[in-house]
Amino acid sequence: MYVGCGDTYYDWDDRRSSKRVVGFVDDSLVMVGDIRCWTKYEETILAMSDEDLGSGCGHARLCVYNYRVQEDGPRWCDSLDNTRDESTLIGQMTDSIVWGGNVPESIKMWKLGEKPHERKLRKIVEGCSVVFMPTSIKQWHEGTFFVRGDKSLDVGGDSCQYAVLDTMQRTITYKKLEDYLKWIRKCDDVRGWGEDVFCLALENEPLDLLLVKNDNILDSLLQGKPYSWSKYTKVGFAGNILNLENNVCKIVSDNFQCIGVSIRDALEYRCKDGTTIIY
Q1: Which end of the chain has fewer surrounding CB within 10 Å, N or C?
Q2: Does 44 score more than 70 pLDDT?
Q3: 222-231: long-range contacts (C-beta < 8 A, 24 or more apart)?
Q4: Tally of domains in the chain
Q5: 139-190 pLDDT, tens per residue?
Q6: Of the candidates 63, 80, 76, 90, the residue with the CA atom closest to the CA atom of residue 12
Q7: Residues 4 and 45 sit within 8 Å (Cβ to Cβ)
Q8: Which of 54-68, 159-173, 210-224, 257-271 bottoms out in mean pLDDT, i.e. has the lowest?
Q9: Do the domain assignments include residue 143?
Q10: Could you tell me if residue 29 is inside a domain?
């Protein structure tokens, strides 16, 4: 195709890339996202130039797979074919919603079965002055969401430690930890369940993963077979599932119950009976 002088052309890759687990719906369904990347060229009346004017990714796709039973493809898939935005699939917000966008200015929410929608946010700062870039948004109390950044919970000085996102009021309020929440400074991830506050915390000596509720230790998983923790281990709440490095677990009667192991960049799942599911 030849167009007027100075126009540009986006050459999209045929194959999708950066496939990764975005979150878990429940103890059998997993959300997987990927993207397509592009290169920008300039077109002239005579031909398309070979000069690379930039590149990026977009066309985000979200799929749902059964990770407990091998099936022929995903249960559901949808993609965004009209956008060069690569910030749509940042993380999981609830068991059926993933989030992205330019938080704290705005947030994009993509609910399974629907198209993403974006909401502008009003930023409020209370009792602190240095805000952080959100990297985690989890369910909190009374329909709000707990927002934190990398290592934000344990910062000092005038830095904000967490924020509360209210999607109905379209506000995000940055704060210092109140006295009743200061115990979560030790946590690697935090979420609310009902009126309770749950925390996942890696202890260094001994290397131990703790499940904490309202500052009370409920259960622990010690380093050693079949668990392999280090100070770099990534743990977090994924909806109602616990994503503990390569271990997929849930909370049953205030205790860890691990139901399988994810392998190969979390795109394969090994059940307790040894069966391997590929998605």
Answers
A1: N
A2: no
A3: 226/261, 229/202, 231/202, 231/204, 231/207
A4: 2
A5: 999 999 999 999 999 999 999 999 999 999 999 999 999 999 999 999 999 9
A6: 80
A7: yes
A8: 257-271
A9: no
A10: yes
CA distances from 102 to 85, 144, 166 (A): 11, 18, 16
How many C-beta atoms surround the C-beta of residue 42 within 10 A? 15
Q: Specify the pLDDT at position 43.
A: 67
Classify residue 178: in a domain, yes or no. Answer: no
In the listed set 45, 68, 87, which residue is the last one of a domain according to the structure? 87
| The pair of three-digit structure tokens given for residue 151, joined into one six-digit string | 């290592």
Helix (H, G, I), strand (E, B) or coil at 152: helix
Least confident piece of the model among 4-13, 23-32, 185-194, 228-237: 4-13
Task: Identify which has the larger pLDDT, 67 or 42.
Answer: 67
**What helix, strand, coil percent values describe the chain, rounded to 5?**
5, 55, 40
**How many Å apart are CA 228 and CA 174, to the nearest integer?**
35
Is 150 within the bounds of a domain? no
Q: Residue 239: which domain range?
A: 187-279
Start-to-end CA distance of the chain, whole Å, equals 37
